[in-house]
Please model this.
Amino acid sequence: MSVSIRFWPLCAAAIIVWSQPALAYRPFDSTDPAVAEPGEVEIELSPVSFRHHDSGDTWIAPQVRFNYGFARNWELVIEGQGEHPQFEGSPSVMVENGAFFKHVVQEGTLQEQAGPSIAIEFGALLPGINTQPGFGAEVAGIIGNQWSWGAIHFTAAASLNRDNRGEIFLGTIIEGPNTWAVRPVAELVYEREFGQSEVIAALAGVIWEAREGLAFDFAVRQAAVDGEPETEVRLGLTFAFSTR
Model:
């Protein structure tokens, strides 16, 4: 559930001044029921990733998700990604642009409380560049819990896309213990655009918490897009800093 070039200066500045622990995850399509603390900025960035499909290869650069905690249990989310197809006649595009609000409606283990954490995310799908004209809307519910052995997060989303067609998204994240510096992660995803396409995908990878406030990730995602195979290699990092 995934900004334009104007965010690059912000990303560069953030690398210099970050100091707070990262709260959200890459490299998943779904998310977790946690938000940035008030006054905190979190950047989820993939400088470059790669997708292979029988129709051709595509470089993804950059992929950015900007999170800002503006109140207790609330954050603003802005996201998007550039794609550069490596086949003739296909221009570079900016896709999956969106602006959302995310709210924790029930504090749980992800907020150091008892029981599952529950959040909602809702907002607008924004027009792309050279593709995806028009607007859409999306709403998602997220529930997650963590234990000593790891964590599980489940996302269910419904949207009216930019072509005025309905879509559903179901995603489950499974991750190893957060006390491990390098923890294994996995994700299962089902997506359907009614009357158009269906995607079933599985992801496996690792997240390395290099230090407080800085995490690197690597994952491979294998999908069946309308029955045709698609492979994506994802590489990125997450960092955060306080504006206070």
